[in-house]
Amino acid sequence: ALGKGSDLEKTFATAALVYNNSADPEGKLSKAETKSLLQTQFRGFIQGQENKPKYQEIISALDEESENKIDFEDFMILLVSLTLMSDLLQEIKNVKTTK
């Protein structure tokens, strides 16, 4: 659908597709599913964060036994939060591309 879209549009479309492929019929993920999705699809950004308090706080919230589910909006906020905390973000900032 976004064959001619910008890189940023394609990135967000991919995030939506990955989320939707994992979501239940109501379009939501359980906390356990969210954690698993992050660990398999976002590991480059969370690698090295395991001992940082904010990361532990986020993961602990996902480990709570609860019927609460994550919707796409909350999932995207979670991705942005983890990206901002990531050691990988600084490496990305140091890379300059030319187009």
Would you give an account of this structure?
The structure is a single chain. The chain has 99 residues and is mainly alpha-helical. 64% of the residues lie in helices and 4% in strands. The chain is built from six helices and two strands. It has helices at 7-22, 31-41, 43-46, 53-63, 72-85, 87-93; strands spanning 29-30, 69-70. It has a two-stranded antiparallel sheet with strand order 1-2. The longest helix is centred in the first third of the chain and has 16 residues, at 7-22. The mean pLDDT is 85.
List the helices and strands and how they pair.
Blueprint: H1 7-22, E1 29-30, H2 31-41, H3 43-46, H4 53-63, E2 69-70, H5 72-85, H6 87-93
Antiparallel strand pairs: 1-2
Helix pairs in contact: 2-4
Protein name: Sentan
Organism: Eudyptes sclateri
GO molecular function: calcium ion binding; transition metal ion binding
What would you say about this model in short?
With 99 residues, the protein is mainly alpha-helical.
